[in-house]
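Quick one, tokens below. Sequence please?
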């Protein structure tokens, strides 16, 4: 498989390292992640609020979530290719302004079809923002601390599951769901201002073009990395989607415990993100394999823990820790994409949104064929193991390429 693993840093590293306030840059980028995470997860909890207001039932309202995911999957590669020649700071500010527009219009949506269109618009910048923000973050630090810098950006999203989602949900219940989308729009505008103020100006990589970015699609290791996330991460979503239903109908927990357990999941996600980043900076591929194995084990424990609230909370925390895979794969793509950094980085989030669709779909099929809610854990474990198998193929292909490269180098 003709893939190389270049050791050279991203093109804008030297320019970015001259930024006078790298901590403020990372904070600004993380705020964007916080805004995106808040709207992505809070919209699920607001379905019962905006469904009657738009004159639709709850199942129909769930298509609003799918519309946002569609925007992410489509927008990430398209924007990355079309904006290849833009300076990264300019691109990030533009993406946040588009995100603010999409959420601001969502807050004003008068009908269901209009709401669908505005949610697609809001989803378009999601993947490209995280991809470009990760590249900027990595350019601020030495090579051996890239993953930890990327983790600080993604921490905005993980913290959103603990703080932003309950906040948006509370605002929605107190003042109406439209104010929740308005809050996200304001966060996006604040992010755009901070990024413009503190981020290095940057410049496009020499020779950057749409054709160069599309070159990422020719590299087998890029596809294997994306497949690892799309399949392996699906296990987490297979359980998370049905977690509230499991708590109420199987564990027989009080409704008030649902946000608490979801918060425990968010804490696990935040800790896992930081720990996995630390591990990835030391041994990237082993860290990815261990994280997938961890996820498979935690998900396999889930069916046996649903009878006790305390046991379930502990297992949900362990499952959340497996979310650190996102940071590992983000830095892996920086290594295998060569000169197509932006597209590859953005596609990582298309892959994770594919996982967000694949996991719940397979779990739903299992439930439709007679399995119980706790068995979603077995579905999730299967997906994590499938992701581990893809990881093993990637590792073997890389090892084979390096063996073939040694004799050529010797000649």
């Amino acid at each position: 498989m003709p893939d190389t693993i270049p050791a050279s840093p991203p093109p804008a590293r030297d320019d970015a390292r001259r930024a006078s306030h790298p901590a403020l840059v990372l904070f600004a980028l993380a705020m964007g992640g916080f805004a995106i995470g808040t709207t992505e997860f809070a919209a699920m909890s607001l379905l019962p609020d905006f469904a009657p207001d738009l004159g639709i039932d709850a199942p129909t309202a769930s298509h609003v979530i799918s519309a946002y995911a569609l925007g992410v999957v489509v927008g990430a590669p398209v924007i990355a290719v079309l904006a290849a020649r833009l300076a990264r700071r300019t691109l990030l500010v533009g993406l946040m302004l588009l995100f603010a527009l999409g959420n601001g219009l969502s807050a004003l949506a008068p009908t269901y079809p209009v709401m669908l269109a505005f949610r697609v618009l809001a989803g378009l910048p999601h993947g490209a923002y995280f991809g470009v923000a990760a590249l900027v973050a990595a350019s601020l630090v030495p090579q051996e601390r890239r993953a930890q810098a990327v983790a600080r950006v993604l921490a905005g999203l993980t913290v959103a599951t603990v703080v932003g989602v309950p906040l948006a949900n509370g605002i929605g219940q107190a003042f109406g769901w439209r104010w929740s989308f308005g809050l996200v729009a304001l966060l996006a505008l604040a992010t755009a201002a901070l990024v413009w103020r503190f981020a290095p100006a940057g410049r496009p990589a020499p020779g950057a073009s749409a054709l160069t970015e599309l070159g990422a699609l020719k590299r087998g290791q890029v596809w294997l990395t994306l497949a690892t996330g799309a399949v392996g991460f699906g296990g987490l979503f297979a359980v998370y989607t049905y977690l509230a239903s499991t708590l109420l109908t199987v564990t027989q927990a009080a409704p008030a415990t649902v946000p608490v357990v979801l918060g425990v999941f968010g804490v696990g996600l935040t800790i896992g993100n930081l720990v996995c980043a630390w591990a990835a900076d030391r041994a990237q591929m082993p860290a990815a394999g261990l994280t997938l194995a961890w996820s498979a084990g935690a998900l396999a424990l889930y069916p046996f823990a649903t009878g006790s609230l305390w046991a379930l909370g502990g297992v949900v925390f362990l499952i959340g820790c497996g979310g650190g895979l996102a940071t590992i794969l983000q830095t892996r793509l920086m290594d295998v994409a060569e000169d197509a950094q932006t597209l590859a980085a953005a596609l990582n989030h298309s892959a994770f949104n594919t996982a967000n669709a694949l996991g719940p779909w397979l779990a739903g099929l299992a439930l439709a064929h007679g399995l119980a809610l706790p068995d979603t854990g077995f579905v999730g474990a299967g997906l994590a193991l499938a992701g581990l198998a893809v990881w093993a193929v990637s590792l073997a292909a890389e090892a084979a390429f390096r063996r073939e490269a040694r004799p050529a180098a010797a000649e």
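The CA atoms of residues 43 and 230 lie 22 Å apart. The two ends are 20 Å apart (CA to CA).
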